[in-house]
Amino acid sequence: MWADYHVLRGKLCILPQHTFEREVLQVWGANPEVGLEHPSETGNFMTPPEGKIAVCLHHLRGGLFLPFQPEFVNVLNYFGIVPMQLPSNAVTMIYCLAKELRRRQIPWDIEIFKAVFQWEVNPRLRGCFVLKGRFCQVFKVRDTGFADWYKRVFFVDLRGVRFGEPRRVREERFLGEGVGFEDPRFREVDEIRKCVHDAEDYLRDLEFDVREYMGESW
Predict the structure, then answer these.
(1) Domain-located, residue 217
(2) Residue 218 lies in a domain
(3) N or C terminus of the chain: which is more exposed, having fewer CB within 10 Å?
């Protein structure tokens, strides 16, 4: 999340048209309900077209689907943030947690998310908040580079999802009570958060997950 998100209002979207066509339209353009739109030459992610919201190309590479998965909508709405306040590595961590919970047949729950992660400010990333494990790294994500991730933006229909204004978070952290010892899920959740999981193991299935989510067959 951006502690000084609003100062980036003037940043332009520089996603090349050919990249948009090759990496976005070829996959998500198959779903006409997504409503994809390449930004204009003067567009920026703070002023999306009516009924649309900005999404970063690196979000898709990290595990965000279109339309948005319920797990992401849950996290974004719970903390009162928008997709562009999530750096790409944070997107990958949410995707990995969702996959790990499904593997263990544990229903998604925001309390589990808060038990596993905490938000932490990183001034090096222009005040961007990153996800950290409550007790360790949890999901080891390869550094994809943060230099210009927020510039490679396009727009997508909200599809009934409602987001508020990007909140100003400054230096505080969001720390939840998490899963209590009396909760029968605690043992498995504790196993997740006390180990280091390689995100690449989850991302190997990303293409298959996208196809399954889109209802396509191999």
Answers:
(1) no
(2) no
(3) C
Domain-located, residue 215: no
Let me know if residue 87 belongs to a domain.
yes
Q: How far apart are CA 181 and CA 195, in angstroms?
A: 18
What whole-number distance in Å separates Cα of residue 218 and Cα of residue 211? 8
User: Could you read off the pLDDT of 26-42 as tens digits, one per residue?
Assistant: 999 988 889 999 988 77
3-state helix, strand, coil in the chain (%, to 5): 40, 15, 45
Q: What global pTM score does this model have?
A: 0.87
Q: What is the pLDDT of residues 160-214, one digit of tens each?
A: 777 766 655 555 556 566 788 788 888 888 889 888 999 999 999 999 999 999 8
Work out the burial of residue 66: count CB atoms within 10 Å of its CB; fewer than 13 is exposed, 13-18 middle, 19 or more buried: buried
- pLDDT tens string 100-150: 999 999 999 998 998 898 887 665 555 456 788 877 789 988 765 555 677
Do the bridges between strand 153-157 and strand 52-56 make them parallel or antiparallel, or are there none, so unpaired? antiparallel
Distance CA 25, CA 66 (A): 11
Domain count for the chain: 1
Backbone angles phi, psi at 68, to 5 degrees: -65, 140
